[in-house]
Specification:
Fructose-1,6-Bisphosphatase, Chain A, domain 1, hydrolase, Histidinol phosphate phosphatase, Inositol_monoP_superfamily, D-Maltodextrin-Binding Protein, domain 2, five-stranded mixed β-sheet, 8 helices, phosphatase activity, single chain, 2 domains, alpha+beta, metal-binding
Length: 270
């Protein structure tokens, strides 16, 4: 069993999830609110169930961590991390900018990542040591010579914790140079990270993410030449607090960290 076998399987998992999701898009379906007040639909559950059925048959020794159906064998060396619909609010609103996230971690590190948009049939695939592909063709992030004027995105400013907002706004101010026309792109969830990998955005910033929200993003962004880290500049792990940065041009990292200032837990002298 090679890494390429795993990548082929990951693509089949995304195919299965997409087939489960498409009949529900802009259609009638059951929906409810979870304990954290986030929405979940029949499509979320159908997609994760489809993925899990394949994994249980073909990789019965691997662990699985999924947003909708919890964890099994999560202490295994190899663990698949699933978010069947990242961006359920966009899905509910009929906006095709949500995505299915599939990651394979080995020893706790993401080695394969898939971002799949099943309506537009757009797929970014990342694998350690290989260039990221978009629908099978290699993609690269773009150079970003300065922070001012950089393309920045986040899903929603309302998702930042109260203590995070001043740091986020400081970064927005540094990027915009006082011009509202240089402000952030809002909406997009995981789709923004695919756009960054393809060279259409320079910075994505979020907080409050879980491992199933970001594990698949790391191989995609970094395989395209970008960098993913937390708001301290540290690598993302299962223990990360969910403060996530993605940079298309790693050369801008210190500029971004400086603009963020005393981000959560950061020393003021950074």
């Amino acid at each position: 069993m090679t890494t390429r076998d795993d990548l082929a399987l990951a693509n089949r998992l995304a195919d299965a999830a997409g087939a489960a999701i498409r009949p529900f898009f802009r259609a009638r379906y059951d929906m409810e609110l979870k304990a954290d007040k986030s929405p979940v639909t029949e499509a979320d559950r159908a997609a994760e169930a489809a993925i899990r059925a394949i994994l249980e048959k073909e990789r019965p020794g691997d662990g699985i961590i999924g947003e909708e159906y919890g964890s099994v064998r999560e202490d295994a060396e190899r663990v698949w991390i699933l978010d069947p619909i990242d961006g359920t609010r966009s899905f509910i609103a009929g906006r095709p900018i949500f995505g299915t996230l599939i990651a394979l971690t080995q020893g706790g590190w993401p080695t394969i990542g898939i971002i799949d948009q099943p309506i537009a049939r757009e797929r970014w695939a990342g694998m350690s040591g290989q260039p990221t592909t978009f629908n099978g063709k290699p993609v690269r992030t773009r150079a970003c010579a300065a922070l001012e004027g950089a393309g920045i995105a986040t899903t929603s400013p309302h998702l930042f914790g109260e203590g995070d907002v001043p740091h986020y706004m400081a970064l927005v101010a540094a990027v915009s140079g006082g011009s509202p026309r240089q402000g952030p792109v809002y909406g997009g969830d995981c789709y923004n990270y695919g756009l960054l990998a393809s060279g259409f955005l320079d910075i994505v910033i979020e907080s409050g993410l879980q491992s199933y929200d970001f594990a698949a993003l790391v191989p995609v962004v970094e395989g395209a030449g970008g960098l993913m880290c937390d708001w301290h500049g540290e690598p993302l792990t299962a223990d990360s607090e969910g403060h996530v940065l993605a940079l298309g041009d790693p050369a801008r990292l210190e500029d971004v960290l400086e603009a963020l200032g005393s981000a959560p837990g950061r020393n003021h002298d950074h």
